[in-house]
Design a protein that fits this description.
Blueprint (H helix, E strand, L loop, with lengths): L6 H12 L5 E6 L2 E6 L9 E9 L3 H9 L1 H7 L3 E11 L2 E8 L8 E12 L2 E10 L10 E2 L1 E11 L4 E11 L6 H32 L24 E2 L29
Parallel strand pairs: 6-8
Antiparallel strand pairs: 1-2, 2-3, 3-10, 4-5, 5-6, 6-7, 7-9, 7-11, 9-10
Helix pairs in contact: 2-4
Length: 263
């Protein structure tokens, strides 16, 4: 059943972010760390967890960056399109996100239920994939599945924070092993640094672009149509077409890193 995350879900996600048990370090350099966690089942998708120390960016600012879809177009070069479909509650909505994969891989897209929670000076945003009757899979994309994805922004003083990003995503398609390795060893750290840089530039950008408009903070500003929870269902990976991309060449340039997923 589709459900809107409650306090227990948020606390469980926060615990996953902060607890080191069961995680293997894949990358640790310049304040950015990436871990992976193998799952019990052979077919299960592995979890990735990332952490970056963001100096000179407050937790509040980084939280705004992660919510602000208008600003996302400025910093997320892998994004093709993103939009909010509708709202469920004052702190939950349904949205769409598509992102570029390097040729000849097909581009991916998601429909997710997203929920967020400020906890004092810390912030959480979590999502998982759902099916919406008006947004079925498209022929020009591979519909990927977020089993569990989210951010935990932890305040670290008045003007500094630590950002955790945890994701368990089934990208569908029979992706070759080099793609999976590249995500954890190169693409993921680069994506985290991109968010950090976006945080440094956001206050100046926001001053010039509707500085008082923050519907994620002020629910009365939210003009999205309402979505009924009954119209949604869980998006299961085995219901989607599986594209065979296992023979893709390992050649990929550093600026063509559309394998990252930041939503």
């Amino acid at each position: 059943m589709v459900h809107i995350p409650d306090d227990a879900d948020f606390n469980s996600f926060r615990e996953l972010c902060e607890n080191p048990d069961g995680w293997q370090c894949q990358y640790n350099k310049g304040g950015t760390t990436v871990w992976s966690q193998e799952q019990d089942s052979i077919k299960a998708v592995k979890k990735l967890k990332m952490r970056i120390v963001c100096k000179d960016v407050s937790a509040e600012v980084l939280y705004d960056v992660l919510h602000d879809t208008s600003y996302r177009k400025k910093w997320d070069s892998n994004m093709i399109e993103t939009y909010d479909i509708g709202r469920l509650t004052v702190n939950a909505d349904v949205g769409y996100y598509s992102w570029k994969c390097p040729s000849p891989l097909k581009n991916r897209d998601f429909v997710t239920l997203r929920s967020w929670l400020p906890l004092g000076s810390d912030y959480l945003i979590i999502n998982y994939s759902v099916k919406h009757p008006k947004h079925p899979p498209r022929k020009d994309y591979v519909r990927a599945v977020s089993l569990q994805t989210g951010y935990f922004v932890k305040a670290n003083g008045a003007n500094s924070c630590v950002l955790y990003y945890l994701t368990q995503v089934d990208p569908k398609g029979s992706l070759p092993k080099w793609v999976v390795n590249k995500v954890s060893q190169f693409v993921a750290p680069k994506a985290m640094k991109k968010i950090y840089k976006a945080g440094l530039k956001y206050p100046e950008w926001k001053r010039k672009h509707e500085p008082d408009f923050k519907p994620w903070v002020y629910p009365e500003q939210n003009t999205l149509p309402s979505v009924n929870l009954e119209d949604l269902s869980i998006q299961r990976a085995d219901e989607l077409e599986n594209i065979d991309e296992s023979g893709v060449s390992e050649h990929i340039s550093e600026d063509e890193d559309g394998l990252s997923k930041d939503s």
